[in-house]
Structure formats: structure tokens, C-alpha cells
From TrEMBL:
<feature type="binding site">
    <location>
        <position position="128"/>
    </location>
    <ligand>
        <name>K(+)</name>
    </ligand>
</feature>
<dbReference type="GO" id="GO:0046496">
    <property type="term" value="P:nicotinamide nucleotide metabolic process"/>
</dbReference>
<comment type="similarity">
    <text>Belongs to the NnrE/AIBP family.</text>
</comment>
<dbReference type="Pfam" id="PF01256">
    <property type="entry name" value="Carb_kinase"/>
</dbReference>
<dbReference type="InterPro" id="IPR030677">
    <property type="entry name" value="Nnr"/>
</dbReference>
<feature type="binding site">
    <location>
        <position position="291"/>
    </location>
    <ligand>
        <name>(6S)-NADPHX</name>
    </ligand>
</feature>
<feature type="binding site">
    <location>
        <begin position="132"/>
        <end position="138"/>
    </location>
    <ligand>
        <name>(6S)-NADPHX</name>
    </ligand>
</feature>
<dbReference type="InterPro" id="IPR004443">
    <property type="entry name" value="YjeF_N_dom"/>
</dbReference>
<comment type="subunit">
    <text>Homotetramer.</text>
</comment>
<dbReference type="InterPro" id="IPR000631">
    <property type="entry name" value="CARKD"/>
</dbReference>
<keyword id="KW-0067">ATP-binding</keyword>
<comment type="similarity">
    <text>In the N-terminal section; belongs to the NnrE/AIBP family.</text>
</comment>
<comment type="function">
    <text>Catalyzes the dehydration of the S-form of NAD(P)HX at the expense of ADP, which is converted to AMP. Together with NAD(P)HX epimerase, which catalyzes the epimerization of the S- and R-forms, the enzyme allows the repair of both epimers of NAD(P)HX, a damaged form of NAD(P)H that is a result of enzymatic or heat-dependent hydration.</text>
</comment>
<keyword id="KW-0413">Isomerase</keyword>
<feature type="binding site">
    <location>
        <position position="401"/>
    </location>
    <ligand>
        <name>(6S)-NADPHX</name>
    </ligand>
</feature>
<dbReference type="GO" id="GO:0046872">
    <property type="term" value="F:metal ion binding"/>
</dbReference>
<dbReference type="GO" id="GO:0110051">
    <property type="term" value="P:metabolite repair"/>
</dbReference>
């Protein structure tokens, strides 16, 4: 798969383990060196934010995450910090054991118990190195109570939130799903909230999904020496099936994507407006035209060469106002729509916003039969749920919010929102005898059957799993909305866009604008996955640029500024 520069690659926990194992097996890099680099990255991040040495409490768990903790403690102590280290009396793996031994030469290790933790003096910084990517089941007993203490149970939240530094993740967070194991999926007050999370090599899905962005605080992605190895020896391992759109890093990519010459066959018409495509936005009956108009305006602003709004003839009168650039044509039934779509210059269709379920159901067949790139949103999704997926193709983009997703894919929604389905105890991914082969197998399986990959990654069924399964089943791109928007293609490729920083985007009509932006990008010839992912990013950027107080009508007008801010 071609990865464009500027996108941040995301690795599942299994992929991360396989990568580390392959690097170690190559003989070019040792586990101890990786752990030293990980510890150094965390210590550096702490010293960058607390420049004067102070008092730190480091909580070390039973595995390699704990090993990182001992490494951090040793480095901070050497830098003049006063340390208090709490750990377990188990025998960790060899690298963590070595780090523990090194720390033990510098200072004591108290047993990690609730009482000991509570009894200690107040610290400037608390380092959470209890669990990282190896969390396999909900924390229990003493460790669960300590994690709850970190969450600020008893009104201490503010006390910890500003002082908690998480190694890889706040403990208890599942780095594949972004949910806390053993806690309500929506999160509760006991989830630890870090000021800062330092992760290694690549972010994991859980940093962006569900509770992840809320609980991780500032996210630092530290190179621990795997980058160089990956670029040389590890090329074949490129696990780029999953890519996050992360606003600061996506800019270059959007520039390429939007202003690359349209890939559609009309490109040969050079600078003609048709070279930028023609988007058709289907509208609904009289009195319900606002949603489609919002979409049409967005499609124009994002650069579709022409945009036609198609309400029933009787509703044309509702659309007499601006923008004058918008064309209007009455379409009463599927025959009229099919006749209109016989014009090959129409390069994309959006149907659903304000359409009415009956009208959407009546017109859906003509949209799909035209084989055009299309966005199916709102009422078209409800109609689709009743009609079934027949006729969908790989240039369709479905844009459900959670409720529409549940109507379309009730069983997947049940898995996502029902009682958490824990995977059996660890897969032993890292212990695979041939990690190179293992990574290749993971990806070969995903090529053959994308759904085979899901459920293997983490203890919990994630929003990413759900979107991938849905896309594979529908044979279309699925964009599952929310503060974390997941976009998945039938071949298993996926993107994540995190919009936790812009809660004001959750406003009536915002989804209609998104449908219009994606339709405009499709009309311009962007492939469906790129149109959906780039659209989600630009939509969110428009909301960021406007700020609180936003209503959906404000979004299209922000798009020129968003493009300008990106230097376009
Ligand atoms: N070389 C490398 O690989 C590098 C790794 N790095 C670091 O290692 C971290 C991953 O290390 P990890 O795989 O050892 O997992 P970790 O998160 O420490 O926890 C696993 C331990 O916890 C246990 N356990 C799990 N759930 C439990 C529960 N509910 N309650 C109680 N116990 C539970 C589990 O036991 P088990 O499931 O086998 O019974 C196991 O003992 C990663 O996040 C990064 O920080 C970096 O240094 C870079 C180099
Ligand atoms: N909490 C949130 N923070 C940021 N964005 C959100 C949040 N919740 C929803 N969104 C985004 O707001 C938009 C709402 O779309 P949708 O639910 O279709 O609304 P409507 O049907 O009113 O247009 C989507 O782009 C979604 O991803
Ligand atoms: K941790």
C-alpha cells in the first residue's frame, strides 16, 4: 500500500509486538536497547515539562511497561530527582528484570500496594508504568484499586491529572480500543487522566478512540530506534494497514489530495469546470431542503466544478435563494434520476440529508445502478437498512452516526456497545517463532478476509473493528461518525480522525455538510477512502477554525480559510 507523507501510521498492539520481536530477532537491536530508549524518552519528556528536579513516584507493573518505569526512575535519579519507586515482587522478563536490577542498585523498591501508595509523601510527578500494550484482562484487586486511586477517587482528580505521566498509556486503557477494561464503555470518574502520555515508535488505535484522547492528555510519540531499523531491515514489515489522520501531520497530505489533478476521466478537459467534477445533491420534499442545501454549499466550497441540487419539482421553490452558483433541477422519481445520471459529466451523487426515507428508498436504486461515486447519508442509510446492501459497490461511501450504524449493522453494534467481549488470554504474539512471517500472515489474512483481522488485536471489540467489519460486509467505504471518526474500506484499510478537541462540531446539520464535502471531493475524482478521510479532516478543521458558537451553516464558509491556512 502506498502511504502518503504526512499521515501518521498507527500500529495495533499485536503489530507493535511483532515489529519489536522482528527487530530483536534481526540481531541489530536488543530488547534492552529498546527499553533504554523508551525510558529515556519518558525521562526527557518529564524533564522538558518539569525543568527543575523535584520529587517523583514511579509505579511499576509486572511486565515490560514496569521495566520502562524502572529505567525512568534511574534516569531521573541521576538527574537529581528524588525518587520513590513501587513495584511488584514477581519475576519480569529479562529486559525488565535488568532495569529493575539497575534501579535496585540506586534505591529501594517498595511493594506496590494501595496502603504503601497512599502512605507516601506528595510528589510533583507520578509515573504510571503499571500496564501498557500487554494488558490482557481487567485489572483486579490491589492493582485495580491503585489505578482507581490514580483516577482521583475521593476527589483527588485535579491533584493527579496535572502530575500523572503515563508510560505508553494510562494503565487500564486498552490500546486497541480506547476503552478501559472492566469499566463502563462510556468511561467513568475512576479512569486515570494523564497530563502526558509517552508512546513508542507509533501511536496505537486506543490513543485516538473512545476514552483514549480524553485520558491520555498530551501525546508524545517517541522514536526508540525502531524507525531506522524499519526503513532498512524492516521494510517488508511495513504494517501500514491503519493510518490516523492527525491534524498537525495531515496538512501535506491534504494539499496533495485536493489539488492533485482529478483522477476522473474528465481530467483531459484541462482547466474546464467539468475537470473539477459535477456533484449532484438529492434533496427532499418541501420544507426539508435545508440539509441538502448545506451539503450543496459545502460541495461547491470544497471545489466541485459544478453542483446541482435535485429536489422534487414541487420543492424547487424552496431553493430560490443563494448561492447563485448552485444549479437546481427537479427530480420526481427514479426514472427522472436515472435519465439525469445518464449524463457522464455528473461524477458524484449525495443522497440522504433531508431526503425523507421513502424518497431515498425510491431513488437509491437509480443512484446505485448509475455506478457513480456516491455518499449515502441520513435517510438513505435508513432506507438502505430496510432494503439491504445489494447494489452497493466500492465507490459508495456510507456515513452513519452511531444510531444509523446500529440500524445498518445491528449485530456489530451489539458487539461494540454490548457487554465487553474479552479475548482469551494472550495470543503470545511476541512469542511467535517467526515474527516476520507472523506480520506477513496478519496482513495476508487481512487481504483475503479483512474481518479475519478484527477481534485478534485487542481484548475488546473496537470501533475500528466495527467499521472494518461493516465495510467488508457492505463492500463500500464506511465512515462511522463521532468524536472519533473511523473510516474503513472493504480491503481493511482504515483511517481515524480524532475530534475530541472540537465538541462544538456536534451540532445539527454538521453531518449534512460532511456529506457535501465528501461528495465534492468524490466529484473531483478522489478515491472513496481518501475522499471520506480528507473530508472528515477538512470538516473538522473548519470547526476548529470557527470555534465555539458554530452552527452548521458556518462550516462551508470556513473551508476557503482552511485551505488558505494550509498554504493552498
Ligand atoms: N521490548 C519490548 O517489547 C518493549 C516494550 N516496551 C514496553 O513494554 C510494554 C509492553 O510490555 P508487556 O508486553 O510486558 O506488557 P505490560 O503492559 O507490561 O503488561 C503485561 C504484564 O501484565 C500482566 N497482566 C496483563 N493484564 C493484567 C491484569 N489485568 N492483571 C494483572 N496482570 C496483568 C501480564 O501477565 P499475563 O497476561 O501474562 O498473565 C504481563 O505480566 C509496552 O507498553 C512498553 O511500555 C518498551 O520498553 C519498548 C520495548
Ligand atoms: N463529541 C463530538 N465532538 C466532535 N465532533 C463530533 C462529536 N459528536 C459528533 N461529532 C461530529 O459531528 C458531526 C455530526 O453529524 P451527524 O450526527 O450526522 O449530525 P446531523 O445529522 O445533525 O448532521 C459528525 O461529523 C460527527 O463526527
Ligand atoms: K502505563
Amino acid at each position: 500500500m502506498k502511504t502518503r507523507p504526512g499521515w501518521t501510521e498507527v500500529l495495533t498492539c499485536a503489530e507493535m509486538r511483532a515489529l519489536e520481536q522482528a527487530a530483536m530477532d534481526s540481531g541489530k537491536i536488543t530488547g534492552l536497547a529498546l527499553m533504554e530508549a523508551a525510558g529515556a524518552a519518558v525521562a526527557r519528556a518529564i524533564q522538558g515539562r518539569w525543568p527543575l528536579p523535584g520529587h517523583a513516584t514511579v509505579l511499576c507493573g509486572p511486565g515490560n511497561n514496569g521495566g520502562d518505569g524502572y529505567a525512568v526512575a534511574a534516569l531521573l535519579a541521576r538527574a537529581g530527582w528524588q525518587l520513590r519507586v513501587l513495584g511488584l515482587d514477581n519475576m519480569p522478563g529479562p529486559d525488565a528484570a535488568e532495569m529493575k536490577r539497575r534501579w535496585a542498585a540506586l534505591g529501594p523498591i517498595e511493594l506496590l500496594t494501595c496502603d504503601a501508595f497512599r502512605a507516601g509523601a506528595d510528589s510533583d510527578v507520578y509515573v504510571d508504568a503499571i500496564f501498557g500494550t500487554g494488558l490482557a484482562r481487567p485489572p483486579e484487586g490491589e492493582l485495580a484499586q491503585i489505578i482507581a486511586l490514580l483516577g482521583g477517587l475521593g476527589g483527588d482528580r485535579a491533584c493527579f491529572a496535572q502530575r500523572l505521566v503515563a508510560v505508553d498509556c494510562p494503565s487500564g486503557l486498552c490500546l486497541d480500543s480506547g476503552a478501559h477494561l472492566g469499566r463502563p464503555r462510556a468511561g467513568d470518574d475512576r479512569d486515570p487522566h494523564a497530563r502526558l502520555t509517552v508512546t513508542f515508535d507509533s501511536p496505537k488505535p486506543g490513543h485516538f478512540l473512545e476514552r483514549g484522547p480524553i485520558c491520555c492528555g498530551e501525546l508524545v510519540i517517541a522514536d526508540i530506534g525502531l524507525r531506522q531499523w524499519r526503513e532498512c531491515d524492516g521494510r517488508a514489515l511495513r504494517p501500514a494497514r491503519l493510518i490516523a489522520i492527525w491534524p498537525p501531520l495531515a496538512v501535506e497530505d491534504c494539499r496533495a489530495a485536493i489539488y492533485a489533478p482529478p483522477a476522473n476521466r474528465l481530467a483531459k478537459q484541462g482547466g474546464h469546470k467539468f475537470a473539477n467534477g459535477h456533484a449532484l445533491i438529492v434533496a427532499g420534499p418541501l420544507g426539508q431542503g435545508g440539509a441538502a442545501r448545506l451539503g450543496a454549499r459545502a460541495a461547491l466550497r470544497i471545489g466541485a466544478g459544478l453542483v446541482t441540487l435535485a429536489p422534487p419539482k414541487a420543492a424547487l421553490i424552496e431553493h430560490l435563494g443563494p448561492p447563485d452558483a448552485l444549479m437546481r433541477r427537479g427530480v420526481d422519481d427514479d426514472e427522472a434520476l436515472a435519465a439525469m445520471l445518464a449524463d457522464p459529466r455528473i461524477t458524484a451523487v449525495a443522497i440522504g440529508p433531508g431526503c425523507g426515507v421513502d424518497r431515498a428508498g425510491a431513488l437509491l436504486g437509480a443512484v446505485l445502478a448509475s455506478n457513480r461515486a456516491c455518499v449515502l447519508d441520513a435517510d438513505a442509510l435508513t432506507a438502505l437498512a430496510a432494503r439491504g446492501f445489494e447494489g452497493l459497490h466500492d465507490r459508495c461511501v456510507l456515513t452513519p452516526h452511531g444510531g444509523e450504524f446500529a440500524r445498518l449493522f445491528p449485530d456489530l453494534d451489539e458487539k461494540l456497545n454490548g457487554p465487553p467481549a474479552l479475548r482469551p488470554p494472550r495470543h503470545g504474539d511476541a512469542a511467535h517463532p517467526d515474527p516476520m512471517r507472523h506480520m506477513a500472515d496478519l496482513h495476508a489474512r487481512a487481504e483475503a478476509a479483512p474481518q479475519a483481522l478484527t477481534g485478534r488485536h485487542g481484548p475488546l471489540y473496537s470501533k475500528l473493528d466495527a467499521a472494518r467489519n461493516a465495510a467488508a460486509r457492505a463492500g463500500a467505504v464506511v465512515l462511522l461518525k463521532g468524536p472519533d471518526t473511523v473510516i474503513a474500506a472493504p480491503d481493511g484499510q482504515a483511517r481515524i480522525h480524532s475530534a475530541h478537541d472540537i465538541p462544538w462540531l456536534a451540532t445539527a446539520g454538521a453531518g449534512d455538510v460532511l456529506a457535501g464535502i465528501i461528495a465534492g471531493l468524490l466529484a473531483r475524482g478522489l478515491p472513496p477512502l481518501e475522499a471520506a478521510a480528507t473530508g472528515a479532516f477538512l470538516h473538522a478543521q473548519a470547526a476548529r477554525r470557527f470555534g465555539p458558537g458554530l452552527i452548521a451553516d458556518d462550516l462551508p464558509g470556513q473551508l476557503p480559510g482552511v485551505l488558505r491556512d494550509m498554504g493552498l
